[in-house]
Amino acid sequence: MLKVLGKENSLLNQYISEIRNVNLQKDRMRFRRNFERIGEIFAYEISKHLEYSKENITTSLGQIEGLELKQIPVLATIMRAGLPFHRGMLNYFDHSENAFISIFRKHHKNRKAETKVESVSSPDLNGKTLILADAMLASGVSMALSYKELITRGKPTHTHLAIILASEQGINYIQRKLPDDNITLWVGEIDDELTAQGYIVPGLGDAGDLAFGSKK
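^ that's the sequence the OP posted. Answer follows.
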């Protein structure tokens, strides 16, 4: 199931426009904060599709029946670009357990990039709801590898894949490689082009570098 949040008018569209803007990208703090805000919006939208139970709440003046999450989701992200996006979700799902995936990507001349999982830190996922977030879905390889590695730690009852910007090619790859009925793919906006080097166009650039500085 694919849900594109940017199709509806909301503040999400403004925040995505700002993270794309080359002039505003110079403000690294604002860039991270916008990722965090986008994470909060995604968390709110995903929360509408989770299960709730009725609970009796005692107020200072009486009692009322309220709704509470039946189960707190596990939040996972791919380092490092996904960290501020993940933080925004954690602001809302503040009792969540967390998982982190480190991906190694090496570019070879005249060959496709080599991508593999370096390390994973994760709680037991059996019978839980998993939200796996990353800033961008280019080829889709990193997301598919991360999901397959995570489910070796237990099989979630449902997984929500959350992506700010995705390419058409990346979405098609995920739908081919992860044809699980218990997966929902949430996307902010979809761009048509993916370069041979794996960059989304128009995209926004290297999200990790923009958020945290360049790397060697």
